[in-house]
Amino acid sequence: MNVQSLTQILVGITWVAVVIAFVVVVMRASRNQPTHGSGRIIGGLILLALVFTTMSSGLVFINPEERGVVISAIAPKGYREQALEPGLKFIVPFAETVVRYPISRQTYTMSIATSEGAIKGDDSIAARTADGQEILVDASVIYQIDPAKVVQVHIQWQDRYMNDLVRPQARGIIRDVVSQFGVEEVVSSKRDEMVNELNTRMAKKLEENGFILVDFVLRNITFSPEYAASVEQKQIAEQQAQQARFVVETKRQEAEQARQIAQGQADAVVIKAKADAEARIIQAEAEAKSLALISNALKENPDLLNYQYINKLSPNLQVMLLPANSPFLLPFPGQITTPTPIPTPVTQPQP
């Protein structure tokens, strides 16, 4: 509780005491009871109440989040040129009054949502882009009174600055800035540039009127139903095109994979054929070398063939019985000659 509040309480108490004392005196007088000294008591209470009232009128406590504009009947301009700073201040009783202004941050919101904006209902800003598309913008202006310009705000706007300055300036600036950008730029490529332009112009306009812009928040952008439908169709078309590209790429990869598999199989067949050919060549060369060695061996030892021939007849054959009048069963290879016929004895006829 500050001193100003305490003095106001004392003022109220003393005036109540004056009234009570006056009522008591009247009641005693109506009953013919003595009222000696009652006048002095009432007079003293009235004097004390006047003193407290005067003190209360001359003391002003300014909170830290406030500044006070002094309206003065004795100042040449009708007001003090300097606003009252926070703390307990003195003014001329009954000749000066104080109008308080908040210097804390304030927010003014304009929204399409019926329960979010400063004004109930749809309070969004209808703006038209450079390419003729209508959009609805939700925005919030966060601002505060410049402590050094409180007197200026009082003179120019008083307590009307929210509805008469912040709201119309914000709506007008949003419409002007949006009209410089196309609808695609507003929602994507140049949105940051647009927000920066809004901040710059709003800050300048508020500064001229004694305010400080803390932030300009572009909350939401809503399109007309027709444009929203066209955007949706465009997105669907882009998704379908993307899906088609994905299918084409999948097919291309499958075809490439099949080609690589076929190429691999063809390469494998070629490699196998080359390997078989080389194997046959090696085998033929080995056989040729083997035959050459055998041929050389036979030239040097002709009987080797006969020896091999006999061994091939039967590995376990040790004795062979032949008829007395029969030649060898088979001739030796390489020694085959025209067989000499065995002469048959001529039988003389009997006389």
UniProtKB/TrEMBL annotation:
SMART domains: PHB. The keyword rRNA processing does not apply. Residues 57-235 form the Band domain. Pfam families: Band_7 (PF01145). The chain crosses the membrane at residues 6-29, 41-62. GO terms for cellular component: membrane. It comes from the Bacteria. Keywords: Membrane, Transmembrane, Transmembrane helix. This is Band 7 domain-containing protein. It comes from Anaerolinea thermolimosa.
